[in-house]
Design goal:
CATH topology of the largest domain in chain B: Serine Threonine Protein Phosphatase 5, Tetratricopeptide repeat
Number of helices of chain B: 22
Radius of gyration of chain B: 27 Å
Largest interface: A-B, 48 and 60 residues
CATH class of the largest domain in chain B: Mainly Alpha
Oligomer: heterodimer
Strand content of chain A: over 45%
Helix content of chain A: under 10%
Distance between the termini of chain B: 104 Å
Shape of chain A: extended
Strand content of chain B: under 5%
Order of helices and strands of chain B: HHHHEHEEHHEHEHHHEHEHHHEHHHHHHH
Helix content of chain B: 40-55%
Distance between the termini of chain A: 71 Å
Strand order of the largest sheet of chain B: 1-7
Number of strands of chain A: 22
Number of strands of chain B: 8
Number of domains of chain B: 2
Largest sheet of chain B: 2 strands, antiparallel
Shape of chain B: globular
Number of helices of chain A: 2
Order of helices and strands of chain A: EEEEEEEEEEEEEHEEEEHEEEEE
């Protein structure tokens, strides 16, 4: 075999096995009260073995990649949708629909000796991984070094510089995959008008915001105002501990070392942990107001022979973010166009759009 | 009737199909090897053909490595000073570690495998054929040369299981202790030297350093063993002494003709060329004021070789200063690396181990009272003479100092051997002789504290002005090899502000 040398960076695999996927899906779709109430329920289970994936490996192997059969990845989930027509009169109807879905993912086995797969990385700071015995999408990055012997695990600041100390071991800082996603739509019809609104939501899931991190590093974030003024301008005394013992036997006391504020925030901005946010949101995704002109209404107009009906509607997309736990950026932002969720970097804000639709029936 | 009628052709057809497939299938298994062997490509390679590429790769063939890694270390040891950008390493904010991947696996982006992979492959292949014993031995020696750089910079690193991803399918190599690595490297050098056999196939011109000269290979290996032995002078003085004396007795480099260096004169291709010229092409570095002022104040004729310009060659750029201070200095007028060591034609040579260093190692051995051929003073002076004349291998006619010039240099009170501060003199001279090899002076500074580097306490440094003492492992190791790197970090003191302030095994206060 010549494969090992020359410009070869991936270890080939002569023992690849076919991928085997087992799927089970069950569900029901029930309608009650002459169709005015409906429940649609689906449960699924998926079990994939021997998935063939190229992985990144430590360069100390002499290579940077290998092709493997990943052990076993499972997915299990439910999807529920409830539809209803609470009010139905000739003049006014209200139709509503609510759906929610939840998926449980588990990377059961990867490969002997490999417990992490790299799915994607931020420019700096964080990597999204598939970690054995955890759900796909673990975000790993740098964390603060903390004094684990004290309540609240205070952050350790350097006794010489007053800057936050990073834990040399990268930490798992959360999972990008949300607990649940769903939506709620309502449509009202009255006297030819139709008003509908769609609310989208996501519960749980984490996001690393490099936009916020960078604005700390460059001092453009509101949070970095702290320490610039006051009795001792340009210095900051962070609340935490510092090590006054030896490196071998640390002794932590309350921090008294003031740091130069510019260095402090640029150092702080480099810690991934500080910029992990909850990616939950509730958004008013769309509002539509329409009016329908029926053929009857046109009967006496000059259009009667030409048009059989028309509809005009005003549409607004991305109307409002009703709830978000991340400052300055859209919680739905995503840096990677691959499978790596949970990374945000200099994302453009989502745009609100307005539109007018006119549809004519001939 | 009708059904019966239509059945027969079907039966015949199935029989025909079974026969056909049967033939195909059996044919498939019979010619499997042949069928799966690419007739237009080689299927095996002579390990010798990889040798020169491995040596060239060790020299560093890409400006990125040099600017980001070797150059950063050169700034730490104050050979160079960055003119435009501030280096995290020089500013004591972190250490470079991109060479981790470059050394072990290589760089896919330029399609060049790393030296560890090359060395592992050469050794594995040469092992299979007893006639290749000289290739095997030279490969083992080169592997030690590569690994001593890696472990000196990073401490505990994958060694025994490294580079074997293809052979063992072990994707998570264990991190070995530096102590185990050093002891094995010393053993490898002893065994490899003993195994050379002049009656077997030699390396010929595929060896870019010694052209297959086994006498010189032995001297190189023994000199490398002396270098490694001396590194242990603090952590294990008895072993250091016995290995050093044994290496010297076995025969080390005798003059500049034995020097380990590679000619990059035909450096048209990026893989072959010396890329120190990027220092001037991008003009990001000047000579360090620490370096220039020492050479200038001792009337060192080498300053005219290292910097062959007339513009204020006696002024360097101080390390660890702010951009505002740099601008005030008008750094464009300060001394830089000239056309002999950083030729614009990319044809400057790369020195791996200079003969002068070997004399300085013996001078130190004599200073410590170990058995050496000559006195500490004689070795020290021989080292200076070797270092003064070693640049005759450089292009563009370097002004090699005359014997009279060298005599005058050595006669100066600051330079003349003085037992009271001999160690500082020896290591400082070695630091000059190893100019542009940042790694070895960096290791020797950590071991001895010499030369006296200018104390820096640049704004924003995270070490309180302390010089970093190793490179930190790349973050990616914590993803791809978490158990092993965590075990290695556990042996370092991870409470240290940053790992790069922790000493490696041989580095003792």
């Amino acid at each position: 075999m010549i494969l090992a040398q020359a410009p070869q960076f991936n270890i080939p695999n002569s023992n690849l096995l076919p991928t085997i996927s087992n799927n089970i899906e069950a569900g029901f779709d029930l309608k009650f009260l002459e169709g005015r109430l409906g429940i649609d329920f689906t449960y699924y289970q998926q079990d994939v073995r021997n998935q063939i994936i190229p992985i990144t490996i430590s360069p100390t192997t002499g290579f940077t990649g290998a092709l493997i059969n990943a052990g076993r990845i499972t997915n299990e989930g439910v999807e529920v949708m409830v539809t209803g027509v609470p009010v139905k009169t000739p003049e006014f109807t209200w139709e509503t629909s609510f759906n929610i879905a939840r998926n449980w993912n588990n990377v059961a086995e990867l490969f002997p000796g490999i417990r992490n797969l790299d799915i994607g990385s931020a420019r700096v700071g964080a990597t999204v991984l598939a970690v054995e015995r955890q759900a796909y999408g673990v975000i790993r990055g740098t964390a603060f070094l903390r004094d684990s012997s004290q309540a609240g695990f205070p952050i350790v600041y350097d006794a010489r510089t007053g800057l936050p100390v990073r834990d040399p071991i990268a930490k798992d800082l959360g999972n990008a995959i949300p607990d649940a996603i769903g939506g709620w739509s309502n449509t009202f019809n009255f006297f030819g008008f139709t008003l509908s609104a769609l609310v989208d939501f996501r519960l749980g899931g984490k996001i690393y915001s490099l936009t916020n991190a960078n604005s700390y590093i460059t001092g453009q974030h509101k949070g970095t105002l702290q320490g610039r003024e006051g009795a001792r301008p340009d210095s900051i005394l962070a609340v935490g501990v510092m090590n006054v013992g030896t490196t071998a036997a640390p002794m932590y006391v309350p921090n008294t070392r003031r740091a130069y504020v510019q260095d402090f925030w640029s150092s702080y901005g480099g810690v991934t942990e500080a910029f992990m946010y909850d990616a939950s949101f509730v958004k008013l995704r769309e509002i539509t107001l329409g009016y329908t002109i029926t053929g009857d209404m046109l009967k006496n107009s000059f259009l009667s022979g030409i048009l059989t009906g028309a509809r005009i509607s005003l549409v607004m997309r991305n109307a409002a973010i009703l709830l978000s736990n991340i400052p300055n950026v859209d919680p739905e932002s995503n840096y990677s166009n691959g499978n790596a969720q949970g990374l945000e970097y200099n994302s453009l804000p989502s745009t609100r759009s307005y539109g007018v639709n006119l549809s004519l029936k001939f | 009737m009708k059904t019966q009628f239509s059945f027969r052709p079907l039966k015949t057809l199935s029989l025909a199909l079974v026969t056909t497939f049967g033939v195909w299938l059996s044919g498939c298994t019979a010619g499997f090897e042949q069928l799966n062997t690419n007739p237009t490509q080689v299927t095996t390679v002579d390990p010798l053909l990889m040798f020169s590429n491995m040596q060239l790769r060790t020299a560093g063939d890409n400006f990125e490595q040099q600017t980001y890694n070797y150059t950063a270390i050169s700034c730490v040891v104050q050979h160079l000073s960055p003119k435009t950008a501030e280096f995290a390493a020089e500013m004591y904010r972190g250490m470079p570690n991109a060479q981790w991947e470059w050394w072990y696996a290589g760089r896919g982006i330029i399609g060049q495998p790393g030296v560890v992979k090359f060395a592992t492959d050469i050794v594995e292949r040469a092992k299979q054929n007893p006639a290749d014993i000289n290739i095997l031995s030279a490969g083992r020696i080169w592997k030690v040369f590569v690994f001593h750089r890696i472990t000196d910079l990073f401490g505990d690193v994958p060694y025994f299981e490294a580079g074997r991803g293809f052979y063992d399918r072990n994707f998570t190599p264990k991190y070995d202790t530096q102590e185990a690595i050093y002891k094995d490297m010393l053993k490898e050098l002893r065994e490899a030297v003993a195994a050379f056999d002049a009656t077997k196939r030699t390396l010929t011109t595929n060896d870019g350093v010694y052209r297959g000269d086994l006498v010189k290979w032995r001297r190189f290996a023994n000199s490398l063993r002396l270098r490694l032995a001396m590194r242990l002078s603090k952590v294990d003085p008895a072993l250091a002494r016995s290995e050093a004396e044994s290496a010297i007795a076995a025969g080390v480099m005798q003059n500049n003709a034995d020097m380990a260096w590679i000619d990059q004169a035909n450096g048209a291709r990026i893989q072959q060329s010396n890329t120190w010229q990027t220092l001037n092409q991008f003009d990001d570095y000047r000579l360090s004021e620490t370096f220039v002022s020492l050479l200038d104040s001792t009337n060192d004729p080498r300053l005219r070789i290292i910097n062959n310009e007339t513009v204020r060659p006696n002024r360097g750029l101080p390390n660890g200063i702010t951009s505002a201070q740099r601008q005030a200095l008008n750094s464009n007028t300060l001394a830089r690396v000239g056309t002999h060591l950083a030729s614009p034609n990319r044809d400057s040579p790369t020195i791996f181990i200079p003969y002068a260093e070997v004399e300085f190692l013996m001078a130190e051995a004599a200073f410590r009272g170990w058995t050496t051929p000559r006195s500490a003073r004689e070795h020290y002076e021989a080292g200076i003479r070797g270092a003064m004349t070693q640049y005759s291998i450089c292009p563009n006619n370097p002004p090699i100092p005359t014997t009279a010039q060298i005599d005058a240099y050595i006669a100066q009170p600051r330079i003349a051997y003085n037992q009271a501060n001999a160690l500082e003199q020896i290591i400082t001279q070695k630091w000059i002789a190893l100019f542009l090899d940042g790694l070895e002076p960096y290791a020797e500074w950590r071991r001895t504290g010499f030369p006296r580097l200018r104390t820096l306490n640049p704004a924003g440094n995270v070490t309180g002005g302390l010089v970093p003492r190793r490179s930190q492992y790349p973050q990616s190791e914590q993803i791809f090899n978490p158990d092993q790197v965590t075990a290695a970090l556990g042996r370092v003191n991870i409470n240290e502000y940053n790992v790069f302030l922790a000493r490696v095994w041989w580095d003792r206060p």
